[in-house]
Specification:
The structure holds 2 protein chains of 2 kinds. By secondary structure, chain A is an alpha+beta fold. Chain A has helices spanning 10-14, 31-41, 47-59, 68-71, 75-80, 109-118, 135-146, 166-183, 216-222, 227-231; strands spanning 17-24, 87-92, 96-102, 122-128, 151-157, 188-192, 236-237, 240-242, 254-258, 263-265, 269-273, 277-286, 289-291, 293-295, 299-304, 315-318, 325-335, 346-351, 354-368, 374-377, 387-399, 411-415, 422-428. In chain A, a hairpin with a 5-residue loop joins strand 19 and strand 20 (374-377). In chain A, helix 6 runs parallel beside helix 7 and helix 7 crosses helix 8 (166-183). Chain B has helices spanning 19-37, 49-62, 81-93, 103-108, 125-135, 200-210, 273-282, 287-291, 301-308; strands at residues 41-44, 70-75, 98-102, 139-141, 158-161, 189-192, 221-228, 231-234, 248-254, 265-267. A 6-stranded mixed sheet of chain B has the order 3-2-1-4-6-5, with helices on both faces. Chain B has a 4-stranded antiparallel sheet with strand order 8-7-9-10, with no helix packed on it. Classes of the chains: A alpha+beta, B alpha/beta.
Chain lengths: 449, 311
């Protein structure tokens, strides 16, 4: 059994890794039940929280405890019985700690799922086995693809209501995987479950002996994390310059930041952007330890051979694989605010550690998520929850990667300069990845569980 | 067509950070963002374990330079003496500047009135918000964690507050990637929560890993306590016990450190960090459920206080 509920030793606990994941599902797909079961069976719902839910459920005349009350934390949410915002949940097993971005299913779903998916390494898309792949499922898959979430789990729920029939599951899994592949989703794992009955959530199901794959929790515990960041070209946005100017450290000048991608090594020749000056890394301080190598997403302080003019907002990258610098950005965006985005609008653009002025030069198209990703050309504006393409001109050059290459140095926010409102989330480059050419393994017609 | 299944070995990548390293790295990033973007940040420092961990992270984030922030303590007047002693010693050791806003001053001159139940925790909001306005702090670090309470689960890392320090959950800015938006109008400020993604257990494990000193009341010790509403409260000048509340000496420790009038002790024999971690990992109660009276007042107690400016 995985997901042990016995107390963990300190050694077990500190060696674990962290997985950030997001859930997406329509109102009646059973997302609350799945989240509730994951939390409950991993001992993350404690007695006083359960009692509070039971008290609240009783006081509103419900017979059974309503697990949605565990996750609906705000007064307005409880009053209206709806979820209005992303909530973050925490649970742990002996193998791993989890941060779950619990994204609401029905109101303002695109914005909320984009928010949850931006930091997720895995997305769980729920489908009702009786309904199969519906419009909402395609929307969730599209958002996961757009945000380039590395791993997607298709949880085919309510298998108990279709007699645990393998062909039902296989047909849904095949349709979804084909759709996801067409969007460029690299990795889909399909799992037949019943969140209500507990099949294949934490415990393997006795009702589906035809399924030989992992349970949801087992998959969450074993899916690889952070592998993609360290394989990418190194990017180090300078956050803050550390200059103690004390008797003990009269000449220390360190560039503090969090490595956005790749590995940094002492001795690496680097270029500082946007100035383009070159130097060499002479030391790396990893929060108190002097190290030879550091990698994403570590927060470190980098020391350089030459005293260059470097400040917050600059980007340090290896001279051999430095990004291009541009003032003209073409990006896919999700518009987040009720105030629409229009051509000609002046905004602030926050990219890594730099904020610059920018102007919206064009809105080439809007994507119709509900009808097969059709492009609507030259929309008058992008409204809240719209996804589309934007052309921006910035007041200063920015070293921006394509989002496909780096989620951190390829992403940005548009901010209203008047009141600081966050308007838009941006991903540099085209929306969806090209479908990868099929290799030998992908020609296999069998389900490889 | 293939569905892939990862093997357990895949998590043994040499580049996968442990969960504590990942949380530490994220928190340090948040401290440095604030240092880079704000004029007058301050760290709320109560001498409790969360604020102690915050200060430790800030020290690491800017080493070998000094922490570029001052500290602010809202003193309810009902503090544990061991915690005040710890606070002052820590401030002196790191040559920090400490601002103290005292609830007692507000009661003495009539700006605040003592509550019938004697609890001063809700009274902290006014001295806190006035200190923020008076000192023109534009970023205020709090040790709040999203695992503490369901209203906190909805809190942003950068949480904009208006000139009255009010939190409006409906008007929160969406927060994506690690791009924190700290822009604010004059008079407004941002509450910053670098420990948002930490759990109580993470905090304790980190304290153990980094060998961070804590006030002694976090470890089992004999203490004169009395029972009120199911909680063991410390007898003292703040107003307890009443005549029908017998005092007894018990072996206890604290899971949270707040105002004496509403922070309960738990029965415990845990005298070491390892013993505390074992106890927390096995506990069936949240720390607030176990030991905080102020959160039991109503279903939305925390949300309501946060709306008014509580951290």
């Amino acid at each position: 059994m995985t997901g042990t509920t016995s107390p963990l030793t300190a050694e077990q606990l500190s060696a674990t890794t962290l997985l950030r994941f997001a859930t997406a599902g329509s109102v009646d797909d059973g997302k609350s039940t799945l989240v509730g079961r994951l939390l409950h069976d991993s001992k993350s719902v404690l007695t006083d929280q359960l009692e509070a839910v039971e008290r609240a459920s009783l006081s509103r005349g419900q017979e059974a405890p309503d697990l949605a009350l565990l996750t609906d934390g705000l007064r307005a949410e409880r009053e209206q019985g709806i979820t209005i915002d992303v909530a973050y949940r925490y649970f742990a097993t002996a193998r791993r700690r989890f941060i779950l971005a619990d994204t609401p299913g029905h109101v303002q779903y695109t914005r909320n799922m984009v928010t949850g998916a931006s930091t997720a390494e895995l997305a769980v898309v729920l489908v009702d086995a009786r309904n199969g792949v519906v419009e909402q499922t395609r929307r969730h898959a599209a958002v996961a693809a757009l945000l380039r979430v590395p791993h997607v789990v298709l949880a085919v729920n309510k298998m108990d209501l279709v007699a645990y029939a393998e062909p039902v599951f296989a047909a849904i899994a095949e349709e979804f995987t084909a759709y996801a592949a067409s969007l460029g989703v690299p990795d889909v794992t399909a799992i037949p479950i019943s969140a209500l009955a507990g099949d294949n959530v934490v415990e393997p199901s006795a009702n589906m002996d035809w399924y030989g794959g992992p349970t949801v929790l087992e998959h969450l515990e074993t899916v690889p994390v952070s592998h993609d960041l360290t394989a990418c070209p190194p990017r180090f946005p300078v956050q803050y310059v550390i200059r103690p100017q004390t008797a003990e450290h009269p000449d220390y000048r360190g560039y503090a930041g969090q490595i956005a991608s790749g590995l940094l090594r002492v001795g690496d020749p680097v270029t500082v952007l946007p100035s383009g000056r070159t130097t060499t890394i002479t030391g790396i301080d990893a929060l108190g330890r002097r190290v030879d190598t550091a990698w994403a997403p570590q927060s470190v302080t980098v020391l350089l051979a030459d005293d260059l003019d470097i400040s917050r907002g600059d980007l340090i990258a290896p001279t051999a694989s430095a990004p291009g610098v541009t003032q003209d950005i073409r990006a896919t965006v999700c518009h987040l605010h009720e105030r629409p985005l229009r051509v000609g609008e002046r905004v602030l653009l926050k990219h890594a550690t730099r904020t610059v002025k920018a102007i919206v030069k064009a809105l080439p198209y809007r994507i119709e998520l509900s009808s097969g990703l059709a492009h609507v050309s030259d929309p008058a504006e992008l409204a809240v929850n719209d996804i589309g393409a934007v052309v921006l001109r910035t007041a200063e050059p920015l070293p921006m990667d394509a989002y496909a290459d780096s989620r951190l140095t390829g992403s940005f926010l548009l901010i209203d300069p008047a009141d600081g409102t966050t308007l838009t989330a941006g991903m540099a480059g085209e929306a969806f990845a090209e479908r990868k050419p099929a290799d030998a393994a992908q020609d296999d017609e069998e389900w490889d569980f | 067509m293939t569905t892939t299944v990862a093997t357990a070995g895949a998590t043994d990548s040499p580049y996968a950070l442990t969960h504590l390293d990942a949380l530490e790295s994220e928190a340090v990033h948040i401290f440095r963002e604030v240092a880079g973007e704000f004029e007058r940040p301050v760290i709320l420092f109560s001498g409790g374990k969360d604020s102690i961990v915050m200060l430790h992270l800030a020290l690491k984030a800017f080493a070998p330079a000094a922490v570029p922030f001052s500290l602010l303590h809202v003193d309810t007047g009902h503090n544990f003496p061991e915690v005040l002693e710890y606070r002052d010693r820590t401030v002196a050791r790191h040559s920090l500047r400490l601002h103290v806003a005292k609830v007692q001053d507000y009661i003495d001159d009539g700006r605040l009135r003592e509550r019938p139940d004697g609890t001063r925790n809700p009274l902290q909001t006014v001295p806190l918000t006035e200190a923020i306005q008076r000192e023109r702090f534009d970023a205020v670090f709090g040790g709040g964690r999203r695992d503490e309470e369901k209203a906190r689960a909805k809190e942003r890392v950068f949480s904009l507050r208006d000139e009255f320090s009010q939190w409006n959950p409906r008007r929160q800015r969406p927060e994506l990637w690690s791009l924190y938006n700290g822009r604010h109008a004059p008079g407004e400020h941002v509450r910053v929560f670098p420990l948002s993604n930490w759990t109580e257990l993470d905090v304790w494990q980190y304290i153990a890993r980094e060998d961070i000193e804590l006030p002694r009341i976090y470890f089992a010790h004999e203490r004169e306590v009395f029972n009120r509403a199911g909680m063991w409260l410390t007898a003292g000048e703040w107003g307890g016990p009443k005549a029908d509340e017998p005092v007894e000496t018990r072996l206890v420790r604290y899971r949270t450190v707040g105002d004496m009038s509403c922070t309960g002790a738990v029965d415990s024999g845990a005298t070491t960090l390892d013993a505390v971690i074992t106890e927390i990992a096995a506990s069936r109660l949240t720390e607030r459920g176990a030991t905080r009276a102020d959160d039991k007042m109503s279903e939305a107690a925390m949300e309501d206080r946060k709306r008014e400016g509580y951290f």
